[in-house]
Amino acid sequence: MRARSEVLETAILGILADSPLHGYELRKRLNMVLGSFRALSYGSLYPALRSLEQRTLIAGTETKDAPPQHALSGRRSRIVYELTAHGKEHLQGLLSSSGPAAWEDESFDVRFALFGKTDAETRLRILEGRRTRLAERLEMVRESANRTRERLDEYTLELQRHGLEQVEHEVAWLDELIDTERGRARAPRSEARRAPGSTTQNEAEGDPRPGTTIKERG
Amino acid sequence: MRARSEVLETAILGILADSPLHGYELRKRLNMVLGSFRALSYGSLYPALRSLEQRTLIAGTETKDAPPQHALSGRRSRIVYELTAHGKEHLQGLLSSSGPAAWEDESFDVRFALFGKTDAETRLRILEGRRTRLAERLEMVRESANRTRERLDEYTLELQRHGLEQVEHEVAWLDELIDTERGRARAPRSEARRAPGSTTQNEAEGDPRPGTTIKERG
DNA sequence: ACGTCGATGTATCGCACCGATACATCGACG
DNA sequence: CGTCGATGTATCGGTGCGATACATCGACGT
């Protein structure tokens, strides 16, 4: 099952929503956006592009020669991809989901990078979801640390401590962001016009489990 | 080539050096040591164990029934692995390497967790190597950020900033550790009660082991 | 004029590893 | 006595990485 790596496709669709691009340039943007580490390999990108094209979410056009305005930039033989209407619709669906799949480690960064295309309510839910997730993790690790502290090596302990600090730091970061978003929700600004065509009343595809409401545990 | 995932094998060998274990328990220790996230899957562990056994670095013994002393702990049918002499030697080689392969993202955590089995000089080299690596990364990202700052989304910028902070935090951590290790090098203390069986005092002192010269390919 | 070097560009292949799953036994709890 | 969670070994499909191949182009030196 595993949803054919939703996150990769979300990222590609999200970048292409801004402007049509060819693979090479797309990869550069992707890596820039994702913080320069966490690189995306061509071995993933090109197959993904082909799959996306087969499902008519994007359309590729081979460009032989671009008539140069400045006499430069005359590269040839590239395949420029752009979103189809279907693709835009699909992207809207992906961006409106706010379940666990949006805030887990593998996907959160990409979803966050696309926050500019996401409505404020969804942003807040994702932020809170991730915060809760990290808090749970913190709890688990701390508990397990208390149980096993004695038997552990000095360096292992230090590694654990540092890992904890990193997560705590991310939680603090999230708290700031949540604060900001809450403020924004109070003073709603017309921050961006969406594509008007896709009315798609989103049927919260996240996950049906009723226990998933945010809950806001300390 | 990619050296059959040296890091996984280092981790397994390192844990087994403390005490013989079976797969299930081994995995628990591994995950505990590695900070509870970054989990190791059985899909990696069991094949790795088999490979290690084939190369006579570890030896597995099937235990049918343990005569219980306390009337409990009578589980059956488990395969307990322990290091062979060859395996111990190999582990020493792995632990004495201090090149890039030791301080890259994929391996640093494991190597650090095994610092208790590593001599002070190697520890310091690895720590400094990683610090330099992260500083380079910081430099690159900052530079690229300066070039592209204008064209980037508010949230993308925030993501970048947070990523930078995380790395900066790790650098600060490393600086503390380097300080500590330097102090330790100056005042050499008989640190840590290790497991008594594992030869802390190296047999055959003048043993440069020509085949395994560290060197590590920059 | 020639070489070659790095950036741009598309594409594939091996394989390491994860996530899911299957199967089995055991202790504990109601 | 039934089932549930922990213990335990093992495999399998799929995703994505790293390496590589191939090709063109501008720029630079000599």
From TrEMBL, chains A, B:
Keywords carried by this UniProt record: Coiled coil
Positions in coiled-coil regions: 138-165
Classification lineage: Bacteria, Bacillati, Actinomycetota, Actinomycetes, Micrococcales
Statement: the UniProt record of this protein carries the keyword Translocase: no
Gene3D superfamilies in alphabetical order: Winged helix-like DNA-binding domain superfamily/Winged helix DNA-binding domain
Keyword Cytoplasm in record: no
Source superkingdom: Bacteria
Pfam families given in the database record: PadR
Record's compositionally biased regions (Basic and acidic residues): 183-194
Protein's UniProt name: PadR family transcriptional regulator
